[in-house]
Queue: 3 jobs
Job 1
Amino acid sequence: MRALYLERTRTKLYSRFVGDRTTAFPSEHRNLRATIVGPDIGLISTREPKLHSQNTCSSMDYLLEVVALVLTASAIAIQLIMRRARKPCPANLPPGTLGVPMIGQTLGIIRAARANGGNQWIRDRMDMYGPIFKASVLCTPTVFLTGPTANKLIFFSSSMLRGSTPLSLKRIFGERTILDLHGDDHRRVRGALMELLKPAMLRQYIGRIDANVRQHLEEKWYGQTTITVLPLMRRLTLDIISALLFGLETSAMRDALNDDFGHMIEGVFAFPVDLPFTTFGRSLKAGRRARRVLEGIIRDKKSKLGHGKASPNNDIITRLLTLTDHHGEQLLTEEEIVDNGILALISGNDTTSVLITFMVQHLANHPATLAAMVQEHEEIARSKAHQEALTWEDLSKMKFTWQVAQETLRIDPPIFGNFRTAHEDIEFDGYCIPKGWKVFWSANVTHMDPSIFPEPHKFDPSRFASQSSVTPPCSFVGHRICVGIELAKIQTLVMMHNLVRHFTWKLRNKENSFLREHGLPIELQQKTPFSMRPH
């Protein structure tokens, strides 16, 4: 009876306070949390600058969430200890420690991440234990893997390791994203998305993206002497993605979604404590609002399609609604369209905006690289008529610019890593990863390995002058092809083409570092006038 009482108490407290016992954690960059560049769309978080009062509120939220988490943990710790005692672990577990029951290393890694030391936290444990070690993060035994061999295991062992979004994140993004679908469902949804996001389909949108970028620069950059890059890039990429995905052209609706997505991102890596005053609770509320908006848009589009008032070419979501299977049924459900649309809007928005922001920083610190980029883009501009929109052929000539982007991804990936779940006992490097344990891989540690990339801290785009220059296989996580990589590439190239030709800049932060809570403030000077290209 006591065991039954403990179990019922644990369940009630667990469902009341904690959405899930496993979630990702912050990266060493304060406002950029975890993501992947792979077959799944990633999990990202960037924070906007906050006022002092907001910081005070955030600190109070953090304290309250820690208290709630500890109270919940104490209610179920005895039960977990009893379970662990009944279920012995293999003798050849990776080195490391699971720490105090329930708490583990959670508080330590979060403290490190808040102090910009998440990757250093991993490297310190690599120095103690080696490239594979165990820890406990938010109540979950987790094996940390680093290096090309580990990346190969994670990326190409889908039968043993599967993508695993914590339940708390499912409550934010939805149950039917490609992060969590497997087998036939995953292939069906991923195949539909890949079909609509492949280069042949995206070519028709390049002119629209070019026009959006030029309009953004004219409205937000032109005539300014100082700007903050990251929030502007986040808004630009959100506007582009929302227009292409959902056909959203209304500024007011974009503003509302932008605010809701900001709250949702904040909740991705907050303690999953579902109370009205917590970050996670506000995130869920924002997610419900955003979902209602997108569901209404889809209903409207279906109605217009049914009455012949809309074309599949209007936007990607409308085209998805027209896809059918061999039985003539709609290929994707409305729930799948909304869930993956939200995931794409949030993750695609943040990865691209952070990449562009880091490129702005590196170009300010490396004038020779900037000069080479300017030359590349001026040559392209000279081959075009006045105000002529960019084309796919123009983008294919921006080879050096993409090398700069890849080197930026290597040094400052907008990713920390990602969780997988072991679906069977896995033998790796002489150790056993038990079934049910989480596996976490880190991109930055591999990217900064001097045995793979000589002088890893040196910014050198020539590393990517040819495919053979990046060795061994799986050493550069940026080569993992995600669903939206071509769209991200187009946005990046179009933005840099317009930016380097018309503006010069220098960093306002004398330390020349990208402090994300500041969003990279720069001093701006316009080189040449330009006018918006027609839509």
Job 2
Amino acid sequence: MCHQDIMLPHGTNTMQFIDLQLLELAGECHSTIKSGMVSTNDFLKLDKKLEKLRYETRSAYSPPVRKPQMSDFVKIKNLSSGDFGSVELVRHKKTSKCFAMKLVKQKRLNIPIDVQEVFLERDILTFAENPFITSLACSFETDMYLVLVMDYVEGLDCDFQLDVLERFPVDMARLYVAETVMAVKYLHRLGIVHRDLTPKNMLISATGHIKLTDFGISKIGPVNITTERHQECLIDIVREFTDEEMRGTPVYMAPEVILEKDYGKPIDWWALGIILYEFLFGYTPFPARCMEGVFLRVTTEELTWPERELDVTDDAKDLIFSLLKKNPMERLGTRGAHEVKNHPFFQNLDMNNLLSEVPLYIPQLEYGDTCSENVGESEVDVPSVDEDEEKEDNISFSYLAFRFRKAYDSPTPIKQSHSSQLNLNEGNIQESAESLNEEDDTTSSGENFEDAVEYLDDEDDMTFDEGKVEKAAEILHEEEVMPHNEGNVKEATEILPHGTYSMWCIYLQLLELAGECHSTIQSGMVSTNDFLKLEEKLEKLRYEICGAYEAQKTGQRVVESKT
């Protein structure tokens, strides 16, 4: 089937998310190669992740076969309303699952700027895989609305809970802020600045943990591939965006935003400092009767502490003081999220395993994961377009999340490829094994990695510094937000002593694909053909991975039979 090549004005952000995921997968391959223990499970996990990435790549240029629509849901109750539209609690008829449906009025969107923000919010919710960030089930458009269907977090938000308790115990504030730090760390690594971190956007889930939401005014810049920043690049970090927009919730705005200066990721760390102060003391540090008064105090006054004695520790005060530096160059977190993550305030928490921490508060649920029928339900009310009102152009906004695709019978089969770039048959598997054994090395050496970089540098179509890509992949893998606690999983799977060669070839191809994505992003012109070609290459790579572990097992059996 031929696809007409169409320029996708909102495709650059999607391509950037795919580029990052390719680098992360390459980092995982790199780590596996260095371990010297390649198992069938490694190939199977990689195949599963590539299946999801291929699905998301296809969704970027081709809408689902069966598009989601309003009639698939029934309304339970309204959650919030505003000029932009509303958020409704809905039940999906087929699965009976509860979702939060955000309806954004198209007539309120100032095309193309506002539309781009909605597309970015959709992409963030789609590609972000973090336990402390809400995720998307599907999206679609109607004559009047752009619709985002997200996970429903039934617990209260921190703002409501703060009104009830007046202020949080130190341990409760510590856990909530720690989980938000890990969410912000993950977003910044994707190049995303939230821009509206507030207690209201920190939801408390059914298990008592934080879920960050509302990416309606978020911005995306370059992906961060380093954990630490040097002085010469700090200016680029704090002046990443030059639009001088003063947007967000006033009491959480950083001084540089209020003064309409260039800004960047440090504005999120400022907001987190305000939030921690409010959690511990019950009010924000620069209160005033009007918004102008707040702005004046934020930009001119120094931070002060309440006179009354409270059980706020010195390390908590130090963290707040470090986050609320008016100069973003001096603000904690500007050089990387590790600065905040490693602060003594969090020393009693396992920051890489926060879900194992026992929360002090578990919300009481009214609905749970699924909604029973006939609980004040009605069809979702979507007004028809008035005859006098101009109908908005049809915007292709439909998307089905990989995890939700089965609800719409949208399988993603792998086509059988007749060619294989790896050409993994029994003969060359044995030959590769003998070659590796002759070198007495089942792990990759430094020389091999230098050869790989030189190989990538020789490719004419790679326009960026491939020497940094390998390091980027390694860093991204090491900086995984919530690493899987698999234990000694390889003991329960079949070790492939000569699987390093196959994993190495896959690693190189992932780096090449990331390089191609990067070049496309730099061109600033992303089309349907770019996603189509990438999907075909990912499909081919999946086929080769399947062949890799099958051939490895066959080759191992041949060697065992000879001995």
Job 3
Amino acid sequence: MANEEQPPKNMMTTTDSCKIYEDMSGFYRKEVFSDVNLILCDKTIPAHKIVLAIGCKYFESILIENPKQSEIILEDVPSKAFEAVLLYIYTGSVLVEMSYGDDLFDVIQLARKYSLKSLEDTLYEKTVSIMCPSNICLFLNKSNELQMDELKQICLLFIDSNLSKILGTNLLNVLTQKSMVQLLERDCFPAHETEIFEIAASWCGSNTDVNNLVSGCVKLTKLTIDELFNVVWPSKIIESERLLNALVSIRNNSTNTAHLINKNIAVAAYNAKVISGIKTLKLLEGTENEDEGARHDQNDVNGITLDLGLNRSFNHVKLKMLGIFYSSYYLETSFNQRKWYKLIDYSQYACSYEQNLYFDGVQQARYIRAVFSKLIPLGKFEVSFDSTVPEVHNHIIYPSSNVIYSETKIFMWEGRCDKFPLVLVLDQPYMISYMKVMLRFYKHVERIETSVDYRNWQTVESLTTETPKKSSRRQTFRFKERIVNVIKIMGDISSNKTSSNFKEFLADFRCYYVRNDGK
């Protein structure tokens, strides 16, 4: 009805539409025909035995035991919550303030006490529907207090899914110690150990950590020695003996795993296995056969995923792509398969053959996945901690030696042999600032261009229109550093010089990075 009064926006309602409720609703809190008083701590409410007995088994059992009693004393029952329950008994509707959830859980608790299962289930669903970062900690505390295990698990999953919105705030500081321990002690909690420590440290700064249960959730041995000294130790929330034991354990672990340096740990001997992808049987041992190469469906965001068996340290990943085609891709890592971190993003680059991926620092993860933009067979997936690594910035290698080698793909652009559009495809993007080229069978070279995607090209240097002398066939190009994936050489060649092996056109081609200072 248009003129019917609507509940406030911060209130929620639920209604059980039954004819008997329509008949009873007019007697709610009315003294007409009242035959029993409900005694609360701060008020007395007139009620009707027949309505109480029909609507609530709890009151039915009390009235059957003593049908003549005129008063029912309700001790330690919050008045506001009880009035909401009584309204439900009379009308099938309930009106509960839901801004922060205190009243809501008081009503849930009474619904459980009075065996009002339908009311409890309805309020449970409403609780889930109004979860948000500002109330989720209260809901988790209440679910523990009321031993609502299913709701507790939903609260934990909500925090996991919305952790990015919660980290950096003080919202988690209102959790009880029990709730905080439940949150942090799970192996599936999608946070790096440094983030777990920051959460624990913030909570300990606002609460008393009895028996160090919250700080004890931090797995110190998953942190680096630098993090222990520069982050954990200044906080003073970890006792010195435990901190010292963690340092000793990390040192001993480094000694015990020294034999893994420069070795591929993505093998069955170290309990690694492939857990997603297609035709992955030969991936860890390696194959050169395209038909045996691993791949994944284009819509599968899990791509090809490795489980290293436990959290491993590494600084090098090698992917061996099979076939003549190229693809862009990205790599992600995870500790628990719930939250993934972007490790390498080559989604803008045309990559092929062997990918040697190094990182600015030591990486740690249990799971690594490669997701390709095309259906490219992968012959091998290696992970290692190398004792020496090339210069790397933002996941791009600055090569100090030539990246053109015998396996480099070379072809003629659009088959135009008259203008000599010779194309060299690097396996992966490199930062390049120096080229040295020596060509056979040519009359004139117009220019050299570079690209990362076959679409956008940059000129390296414009050459003279005069035919070079034989003694000057070797050309050197020094230019401002740029990311290079594909190189195209344009020019004229002798009309009688043709070959299906385009590598014959190159007498020598060197391509690498030289600093501006020449070093």
